[in-house]
Amino acid sequence: MKFMPRSAWDARGPKNITRLSSARGVKVHYVGSPVTSVPAAKCSTGCRNKVRSIQRQHMDSNGWSDIAYNLLVCEHGVVWEGRGARVMSAANGSGLNSGHYAVCALLGNKGLVEPSDAMLNGLRDAIEYLREHGAGNEIKGHRDGYSTDCPGGPLYAWVRKGAPRPKGSTPAKPTPPKKPTPEPEINPTEVMVKQLPTLREGDRGWHVKTLHYLLLARDYGGLDGVDDTTFTPAHTNGVKGLQDATGLKIDGVVGQKTWAVLLRVA
Q1: Which end of the chain is more exposed for a tag (fewer CB within 10 A), N or C?
Q2: 3-160 adopts what CATH topology?
Q3: Across the chain, what does the average pLDDT equal?
């Protein structure tokens, strides 16, 4: 199934949502007004603009909370997400929206009036997608139960036949979802190292005290009787010895790399 989520056509956010846990099936619609065909090469912009225009009309002119349909299908067989699955439509008529999801073919009453094989396959993809999300087996036209010409003669004839796929076509294989990239494991010690200050001779404070006892833990014996809160020349010598032994730059300054060695994370 060629599926375009709301984000792909820059859908406006709905004013409110009414959830629908299940339905008897799907009702098929068409746009009804004149519709112009779009070349396949321009589907991503031309058909996208049609869907955006429908949402604009439904929200701004009709005052509805969102585009009325759950899904829309263009002549190229692309399924465009409208309200989406498990959301009540506003397309079937008063009192009828809880019974069926609504799928709209981008067909008109003039211009583009005949569904292409690609569109029929896309409509079938949309119906099966909604069946995976609580729709029952019924497939009806908008005119079933509501006084309207929708979804037009050619499309309604297809609905009356049971909405079959065109001859010679095969069901579209769903694209398997991509496996999410696992979040990297967070090493709390590495996080702490990045938050530690750079220390050099003359600095004072409890970070120096931490350094003092980490040097002792690394078997440096030159700190007997030395103030453990002041970075002294004795600490500098100990840091340089550690840096020399571990291949770090020998400068006597305790930066992230030296802290990492002191804390045994590198």
Answers
A1: C
A2: Lysozyme-like (3.40.80)
A3: 90
